[in-house]
Amino acid sequence: MIALAEPMGRIAYDEKNSAAFAAGRQLNLDGLAAWRAAVARHLPARAGLRLLDLGAGTGTWSAAFRQWYGAEVLAVEPAAAMRARCAYPVLVAGRAEALPVAAASLDGAWISTVIHHLPDLPAVAAELRRTLRPGAPVLIRSVFAGRGGGISLFRWFPEALRVVESYPSVADICAAFGEAGFAPVALESVPQVTAPSLGAAAVGLRRAAHTPLLLLDDADYDRGVARLRAAADRAPEAPVVDSLDLLVLR
Q1: Among 18, 28, 64, 85, fewest CB within 10 Å belongs to which?
Q2: Contact by Cβ (8 Å): 15, 79
């Protein structure tokens, strides 16, 4: 959820961007049933499960995993402004390339909408190999280059797909993680309710909360806002359902 390479990531999560993220990117657990099922297929719940939430942001996923699976979740977040907004109690500062975690101490790693902020994927993979127990999965939730078609945001801001095309592809990630001995075992598209309605999406949109929107020029952004508002005027109660990818490596 958050840039782990401050200030090397695509955007820096300072006070402004962190506030926008907290206001505009919160997910309701009721809309994430498909994600709960998808994660459970690759990380079965058991007593004592210890999971890393890498780039935990405001702690939405950490709280979800504790609620869903009773997992012990270690939330790692480098941005001080994001940590200040995180209600999840087991939160530490840290970077993906140098985790404050003992070797072979984790049963899985969760990386949600973060991978495109990490400039040195082989180093990240090597650090995860160090900290994960043998056979433990890395679960990457993301929009990958070439696979942005399931995201409603890009219907209103089609120019933002150019930004996504600069993100790592599935092949890029598999190659980088392969250097540390990881192999892909699953790639699936998982739906979620991102906003309860188009009206709510239009009201709640925060440019600073979305990396692709921040990297647009102002004219493209303004045209996208107009498209979103027009869509909301036509069908204000329609839910916003998106599909992101889940890539699993072991």
Answers
A1: 28
A2: no
DSSP conformational letter for 192? E
CA distance 23 to 11: 17
Q: Which of 53, 54, 74, 59 is nearest to 21 (CA)?
A: 59
Residues 12 and 2: their CA atoms lie apart, in Å, by 9
Q: Which residues contact 46 (CB under 8 A, 6 or more apart)?
A: none
Decide: 229 and 222 in contact? Cβ < 8 Å. no
Q: How far apart are CA 31 and CA 134, in angstroms?
A: 32
Token readout for 132 is 């994960």
**Could you tell me which of 5, 226, 211, 17 has the C-alpha nearest to residue 124?**
5
pTM of the model: 0.91
Round to whole Å and give the CA distance between 1 and 173.
17
- Which helix or strand (DSSP H or E) is residue 240 part of? strand 240-249
DSSP-assigned letter for residue 242? E
Nearest 5°: the CA angle 124, 109, 8 is: 35
pLDDT per residue as tens digits for the range 63-121:
999 999 999 999 999 999 999 998 899 899 999 999 999 999 999 999 999 999 999 99
Domains in the chain (CATH in brackets) are: 15-194+242-249 (3.40.50.150)
